[in-house]
Design a protein that fits this description.
The chain has 15 helices and 15 strands. The protein is of the alpha/beta class. The chain has 2 domains: 21-185 and 376-388, Glycogen Phosphorylase B (Rossmann fold, 3-Layer(aba) Sandwich); 197-374, Rossmann fold (3-Layer(aba) Sandwich), CATH 3.40.50. Helix 8 links the parallel strand 9 and strand 10. It is globular.
């Protein structure tokens, strides 16, 4: 990504008086998931006043957008240090706004590096309920304590009033704390949710490099090289690239310009499309990888970090897989190629297998059925039901 991030300005005053709810969601996926919760809440109570640090999805369902956090989402220790001054300013402005306008409740969505620090400051300043104040704190889509920084769960229990998780095994991760934790179902398996993708053996392949500029810059060229290697064996192969924002779209276009031989075979598609057909996929390990798994699309996961960030991650992160579908199923539904293992020849081999071997589609379909069963709550509890209790 560019070393220049958008300048933070003073956030606007809340419209309509004291906010009932402030949402803080720093990722595109968190923005989308939180938007569904807010839409449900506002359908029940149209007068609910909601502000957010999030993105356009939350804004579209009636939340007042104070700052677009999704436009500045980055990952990796090195990247965060590089932009320290920017994030320190953003952090300070967020705290100033909360202290000045006193929302009745704050719901953090994922984004733990930022959100848990905000929660700690609200506690220390006596603003949150657990700190002696009036502001309730909920956390939806909690930090992945099962992967790294497991001890954070005890600090969260000191700071947060309730936690809503989207993977069933996460409840057990907090069983030894005092933090009320409930499985609220995954938004991708809601009855009213249409997956953005669907399997079609006759469709182009998908290339999904992610939603963060730094990751896209490292991963998209690798995906293109894997696609190019596959195209040498399947000359009429076409690809679609899904993008989450205009910022990412422009970055993808710029990268593709350096692969002139592939330009005619690659099409860019906004993620506003529903049920986009795909025959196979090469993808990053983010939220869309789960959508691919639930859509029974075969393929592989590709991931690259800054070398120092990856080195530190190998020390700190203790998981068998980086793809959440692989973790849930405890098997490599989508084989993973990380750092230097992501060679074009190997990616092409898996792409061609997904396209030409019937068992690849069968395995993907079986995995999708298993995942759908795992990700639904038995009680029917929704994230909106869970959060509504706080009002």
């Amino acid at each position: 990504m560019s070393d220049q991030l958008p300048v933070t300005t003073d956030f606007p005053a809340p419209s309509g008086g004291q906010p009932d709810l402030l949402i803080i969601a720093g990722e595109h996926s968190g923005d989308e998931h939180a938007a569904r919760v807010v839409a449900d809440l506002r359908a029940r109570n149209p007068e609910l006043r909601v502000a957010c640090l999030g993105g356009v999805e939350l804004q579209a369902v009636g939340a007042q957008l104070l700052y677009d956090l999704t436009a500045v989402s980055i990952v990796g220790f090195v990247e965060v240090v590089r932009h320290y001054n920017f994030f320190k300013s953003l952090f300070d402005r967020t705290l100033e706004w909360i202290e000045r306008y006193q929302p009745k409740h704050v719901c953090f969505v994922d984004y733990p590096g930022f959100n848990l620090r905000i929660a700690a400051q609200l506690f220390e300043r006596g603003l949150s309920k657990k700190g002696g104040g009036d502001i309730g704190l909920s956390y939806y889509i909690g930090p992945q304590v099962w992967a790294w920084k497991a001890k954070r769960r005890f600090k969260m229990a000191e700071l947060i009033d309730q936690l809503g998780v989207i993977f069933p095994f996460e409840v057990d991760c907090f069983a030894d704390t005092t933090l009320p934790t409930e499985f609220v179902g995954h938004p991708f398996v809601r009855d009213d949710y249409e997956l953005p993708l669907r399997y079609d053996a006759t469709a182009p392949v998908l290339l999904l490099p992610g939603s963060r500029t730094a990751a896209v810059g490292r991963i998209f060229p690798v995906l293109l090289e894997g696609f190019r290697a596959a195209q040498k064996q399947i000359s009429d192969l076409k690809a679609r690239v899904v993008y989450p924002s205009e910022q990412i779209f422009k970055q993808l276009q710029s990268i593709l310009e350096t692969y002139p031989d592939l330009k005619a075979a690659v099409e860019f598609v906004p993620n506003s499309n529903k049920a986009l057909p795909a025959s196979a996929v090469l993808m990053s390990s983010g939220t869309m990888s789960l959508a691919c798994a639930l859509s029974a699309i075969p393929g592989a996961i590709v991931y690259r970090l800054n070398p120092l960030s990856y080195f530190l991650g190998r020390i700190l992160v203790k998981v068998k897989y980086i793809g959440i579908a692989n973790l849930l199923l405890d098997r490599p539904l989508h084989p993973e190629f990380i750092q230097d293992a992501a060679k074009p020849k190997r990616l092409a081999e898996h792409l061609i297998r997904a396209l030409q071997q019937p068992e690849a589609a069968t395995e993907a379909a079986t995995g999708a059925d298993e995942l759908k069963e795992l990700l639904q709550t038995e009680s029917g509890l929704t994230a909106a039901d869970w959060l509504e209790r706080t009002f």
